[in-house]
Write a structure and sequence with these properties.
By secondary structure, the protein is mostly helical. The protein has two domains: about 30 residues; about 70 residues, no CATH class. The protein contains four helices and no strands. The longest helix is centred in the middle third of the chain and has 32 residues. The mean pLDDT is about 80.
Length: about 120
């Protein structure tokens, strides 16, 4: 009773061919950009560590010049810059982001615990 329309069959065949080409193209692009996310995270972490140390050192140096307290503020701000840099690297590698506080980390931990238990 139902005859298959040859135009409909041609459209289906064309669609399947396009899907195969698209899947092949997508797999080539995904292989090409496979490691770029890790590399960008590493570069970002390194840049944040270096800039926070340099900013702390510069602020400490300028405060020492202004207040004539030669090594005091330079050392203190360098230590603070190193600590800030390591905290930023940790936040970057844990994908916490820059929200105030660590609520996202707590939510992620709670969600993972629920998923594992459930």
């Amino acid at each position: 009773m139902t005859e298959k329309d040859p135009r409909l069959e041609k459209i289906k065949a064309d669609l399947e061919a396009k899907k195969k080409v698209e899947a092949k193209t997508e797999s080539i692009h995904s292989k090409k950009f496979e490691g770029t996310e890790s590399m960008s995270t590493g570069l970002r972490a390194g840049a944040e560590l270096i800039t926070s140390i340099l900013a702390g050192g510069l602020i400490g140096y300028l405060l020492d010049q202004w207040l004539s307290t030669t090594p005091l503020f330079l050392i203190a701000m360098l230590v603070l810059g190193v600590i800030t840099g390591f905290v930023n690297v940790w936040r970057t590698t844990q994908n916490i982001g820059y929200q105030v506080g660590y609520k996202d980390l707590k939510d992620k931990t709670d969600n993972n615990t629920i998923k594992k238990d459930g």
